[in-house]
Design goal:
The protein has two domains: about 10-195, NAD(P)-binding Rossmann-like Domain (Rossmann fold); about 195-315, N-(1-d-carboxylethyl)-l-norvaline Dehydrogenase, domain 2 (Orthogonal Bundle), CATH 1.10.1040. It has twelve helices and twelve strands. It has helices spanning about 15-25, 40-50, 70-75, 90-95, 115-125, 175-180, 195-215, 230-245, 255-265, 275-280, 290-300, 305-315, and strands at about 10, 30-35, 50-55, 55-60, 65, 80-85, 100-110, 130-135, 140-145, 145-150, 155-160, 190.
Length: about 325
């Protein structure tokens, strides 16, 4: 039995991608509630709405929102369906203020960069039904509750929890997938029977691109011909493919290096999220990207020297306060 009605979703971490989903799901007729960090965020959202610019046209939606103190006083319904788009390192802390409202069997969809968080969340919430998703959609924040869609991609989702069926579409996700079939031009969602594979593939590409762009202060496209970064990218790809092979992950078609270079070319003018975080003095998700590969490699007795060197270089270049490593 599902803990909450399928047409109602709460969103934790409504930044660029989380905000985009909030806007689209609201327009599709879902009941959407954004979980804000504080009262100020909540009041600003209720005052100005959520602004999304798509192909130069600004649209505004007005989802519900809650902040922790208000929720404790006013909100009695349990949270049954939760989309989590927070940074990986902040996930458990972001969930904590809402813990008392989470249904014990909450359906939790993690849409994040990197890997490793789902295991931590499952350990903290053992009865939760955890699903994971990965997307090639692009969006960036202009300002508070203002974002721009930067590209239309594809989203894969699938079951993570061991007690869930991976082969068949989960009942709770069927309304999302049905709406996506009608509105693929807005959000293309596909159920994946082995979600770990696309998660690994995206992680592999990010591990080759993101850290190096931050070390050398490059756009993604500048990485391709950079005399110092390019050889390091190739070594990162070799190490990652070795780890993936030992973990029995389906190889990336035509190889990781070609795919990473293709993505770098397709997003040539973009600054990676890691570079943006470093320049802004924010913690990065490098521990859930390159750090995850190092962790997996260690269990297989693989040194992953290029990945370790990348993290060491980031430590040297940016202060410990800027990086969570």
């Amino acid at each position: 039995m599902q803990p909450n009605k399928a047409q109602s979703w709460y969103i934790l971490g409504a930044g660029a991608i989380g905000g985009l989903w909030a806007h689209i799901l609201k327009n599709w007729g879902f009941e959407v509630t954004i979980l804000c960090r504080n009262e100020a965020q909540h009041l600003l959202l209720q005052e100005q709405g959520l602004s999304v610019t798509i192909k130069g046209i600004e649209q505004t939606s007005r989802p519900r929102s809650l902040f922790p103190g208000q929720a404790n006083r006013q909100h009695q319904d349990s949270i049954g369906n939760l989309l989590v788009c927070t940074k990986t390192y902040a996930t458990l802390a972001a969930l904590e203020p809402w813990q008392s409202l989470l249904h014990p069997q909450v359906n939790m969809l993690l849409l994040q960069n990197g890997m490793g968080t789902a295991q931590l969340v499952q350990g903290q919430y053992p009865q939760a039904n955890i699903y994971c998703a990965t997307t090639t959609d692009g969006a960036w924040r202009q300002g508070p509750w203002q974002l721009t869609r930067a590209g239309h991609g594809e989203t894969f989702m699938g079951a993570f929890s061991h007690h869930l069926s991976r082969s068949s579409v989960a009942e709770i996700m069927q309304p999302l997938l049905a709406a996506s079939q009608v509105h693929k031009h807005e959000l293309a969602i596909t159920w994946h029977t082995d979600i770990i594979t696309p998660l690994w593939h995206k992680l592999a590409i990010n591990s080759a691109i993101n850290g190096l762009t931050a070390i050398y202060h490059l756009t993604n496209g500048e990485l391709i011909e950079h005399s110092q970064a390019r050889p390091r990218l190739e070594q990162l790809c070799r190490e990652t493919e070795d780890v993936m092979s030992r973990c029995h992950i389906t190889p990336i078609s035509q190889g990781l290096l070609k795919q990473a270079l293709r993505v770098a070319q397709q997003t040539a003018d973009n600054k990676s999220s890691t570079l943006q975080d470093c320049l802004a003095g924010r913690p990065t998700e490098i521990d859930a990207i390159n750090g995850f590969i190092i962790q997996q490699g260690a269990m297989l007795h693989l040194p992953c020297a290029a990945h370790k060197q990348l993290i060491d270089d980031l430590r040297k270049q940016y202060t410990q306060a800027q990086l969570l490593l």
